[in-house]
Amino acid sequence: MLAMFFWAFVVGGIICVIGQLLMDVCHLTPGHTLSLLVVAGAILDGFDLYEPLIDFAGAGATVPITSFGNSLVHGALEEVKAHGIIGVLTGMFEVTSSGISSAIIFAFIGALIFKSKG
């Protein structure tokens, strides 16, 4: 069990280090870095490389933003198998809708409760 926590920490940390290096060394904006990591997760899932990473690192691979790209592609591919080409569109929204909806709802509640300093 301790090894599981260790590898989750290491893999999640490596993903974060990659993102930080992209911003510091390549001088990418946070938005560009975010987009690049999402696309990297999508590409890794397209080549069936992200699921083994999740099996190995657990939350170290599912928590970072690369997992969002993985979820988009994974959902689209599953729905294509079930419903044909229209599954490309419906699969992406089906898998990620709960996370996106939660983020919007909690951000709205946070904005109602706390006063921004803008």
UniProtKB/TrEMBL annotation:
Signal sequence segment: none
Bilayer-crossing residues are: 6-26, 95-114
Q: Which InterPro entries match?
A: Spore_V_AE, SpoVA
- Does Disulfide bond count among this protein's keywords? no
Name the UniProt key words of this record, in alphabetical order: Membrane, Transmembrane, Transmembrane helix
Write down the Pfam families for this protein, in alphabetical order.
SpoVAC_SpoVAEB (PF03862)
NCBIfam families in the record, alphabetically?
A: spore_V_AE (TIGR02839)
Q: What is this protein called?
A: Stage V sporulation protein AE
Q: Which organism is it from?
A: Caldibacillus debilis GB1
